[in-house]
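Blinded run. Sample ID left blank on purpose so nobody reads anything into the name before looking at the predicted structure. Input follows.
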Amino acid sequence: MKKLLHIFKNLRFQRKIIAISLLISLIPTALLGLFSYTQMRTLLIDREKTAIQETLNQEVIQLDYKINSFLSTMNQITWNENIRLALSKNYDSNFDMYLTYRDTIDPLFLTIRSLNTDITAITIYTDVNIYPHGQTLRTLTDAQNQIWYDQACQTTTPFFSLSSDGQTLYLIDRIHYTHVPYTSMICMTIDLSASMQNADSLFNNNYGFLLANASGETIYSYTNLPEASLTTDMSCDMLFNDDLTGYITETETLSNTGWNVFLYRPARFISSAASRITYIVWGMILLCIVLIFFVSILLSKVIVAPIETLSAGMRQVESGNYEVAIYCDSKDEIGQLILSFQKMVETINNLIN
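Blinded prediction complete.
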């Protein structure tokens, strides 16, 4: 610091003015540029949060609608009186079974599947004395190997279950009888990827989507982020507790199932969208510094010119020339100094003469 002060003291007056002008103007210019960049980045992140939240709300509405449609379809089957009667009587002949399939079960299931293409199969598992019919009706013993069987035996409300490969979603419900010694379960097979196809096109790129049940188990996840190794380890707890640094995350809960829906994007991709504006801001700052430099040179010349004129007059007086004449039309301190010097030289010249 002492060396810098020493160098600054020994600078010429004009260079001191230029250095002071640049330093004084550079500080507010740099602060203004930094403030503009920070505010711009904050606005972009806030805008992105709003966009993510609105997109997530739309996706949640669609998922709620689909789940409601699945549940309504299941209720349509379980509380269908014809289905209940067909699964609660003893059949005396194969022809009666054929009529039940042809007139009751098959038309209903075909209609449901044609109206909702996400449903790939509907299967009834029952211990009624009726022959199996393809994937439409199976014996109750066939359901014992399914991953949802134990839960279906313990609950009386419809529930969802995920397949072991994570590609299929099952909706299971029991048909409730009164004073009938039969047990019947309906399993609706849902193509998970087809039901979640909207989640694969929420944004063009650089985002992640995750659907988890109330227990925190991942039901469906999608990401097109370049950090694939990071996103594969992302869990519901990390997203729910916002433990991801450098990510913008939003979450919503589905109304009927209590499932959590997460949508996240890296903040650095959002900031990179402002790179062009950032270059413009710093370019303007650099241009301002160049303009300030040239303006400082011009102003320093205007300020230093009278002082240099006074210095030249002093050198002439030192050499013995008392006839020197210096004029300055300014009324500032330098002008008053030059006027006083001129009067002093004239007085000295008169005294010598």
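Unblinding after everyone has recorded impressions. The chain has a mean pLDDT of 83.
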